[in-house]
Amino acid sequence: MTTEAVKSALRRQEIELPSWAFGNSGTRFKVFSQPGVPRSPEEKIADAAVVHRYTGVAPSVALHIPWDKVDDYAALAAYAKDQGVRLGAINSNVFQDDDYKLGSVTNPDPSIRRKATDHLLECVDIMDATGSRDLKLWFSDGTNYPGQDDIQDRQTRLATALKEVYDRLGADQRMLLEYKLFEPAFYTTDVPDWGTSYAHCLELGPKATVCIDTGHHAPGTNIEFIVAFLLRVDKLGAFDFNSRFYADDDLMVGAADPFQLFRIMNEIVRGDALDPDRGIAFMLDQCHNIEAKIPAIIRSVMNVQEATAKALLVDRDALRKAQQDGDVLGANAALMDAYNTDVRPLLAELRTEQGLDPDPVAAYQRSGYFEQITKDRADGQQAGWGA
Ligand code: AOS
Ligand code: ZN
Ligand code: ZN
Predict the structure, then answer these.
(1) At what angle do helices 3-12 and 293-313 cross, to 10 degrees?
(2) What is the ipTM of this complex?
(3) Model pTM?
(4) Rg (the chain; Cα; Å)
(5) I want to staple 330 with a disulfide (CB 3.0 to 4.6 A). Which of 141, 146, 322, 387 is the partner?
(6) CB of 62 within 8 A of CB of 18?
(7) Domains, the chain, ranges and CATH?
(8) Which CA distances in Å does 85 have to 79, 102, 115?
(9) Is the CB of 241 under 6 A from ligand 1?
């Protein structure tokens, strides 16, 4: 690919930001407060718009209901538009009520299943008002002890709830089904892996696709294989990008394993799936517990851009030829040459051409925005977890 073609693909790239990444967060041990943290959904959107202003590739913000509950979602969408961004995926939350101790849509109690399904349906109503395309579903449902509940019945309950919500989706709306190996359930999780998610999505129909959260696998899992498999059968709907060292660490994407991120983006480029028209949502799902949030999110966006630029630089003809010739080392070298390229000058040049500062983090630091929000916002909101 020529440098111009690489740049034009990068210009069209879109990365969605999670509203909750701007709020205070922590671990089960402590939620740390930071100065200047948003007090409302509007302020989270304003911060996301700042990230977009300095990077040029983050035009949408995912909401989490009820953390971002407002009376008028159409007005919130209009507010986002004024800020220069749009509202993205609606994330449901059926994991925070006492009622959900034994599960939400898989709970043995039908009245709790009804309550959970009603929340998911309410999220689709919100999508109608915000104009959002995607409903992102993550279920904490599972069990802690062998025998605690019937594993097969739970799958049936899950399928029933998903079907009801699927049938409520509008023509242009989609369902993204996220999976997670464990936590908070420690024995069984009802959607523990991509295969389970894929099987449910297949049963539901074309509007249901899999969301890959890069932090939700067992150590050593080959995530790019999952990407390749799902792309081929058109069942990859979205990513929740973040980094992990141990479990669902939610650290900045590309921080723990930039090579893995490159390998994932390499499959995306190979499958011609980078362009927004292809319909894959590239979202971040991160928590910035100890680092300053806005620059950390800018850095994360840049990490995705860097991995993407390297993937675009892979000499596809040379790679294909080496693969066909059985040239193992040559094929591997074609990938590694691209990965080892320093793409920062290319991205700096691209930003300058787009009228952006070549160094988005430095530009943000100089802008005075942090000083302003620190002054304006006393008592910032927690992202949503914990007390
Ligand atoms: C939870 O582990 C998942 O990553 C979900 O995407 C979740 O909804 C999000 O992290 C906000 O808590
Ligand atoms: Zn996630
Ligand atoms: Zn997660």
Answers:
(1) 140
(2) 0.97
(3) 0.97
(4) 21
(5) 322
(6) yes
(7) 3-376 (3.20.20.150)
(8) 9, 38, 32
(9) no
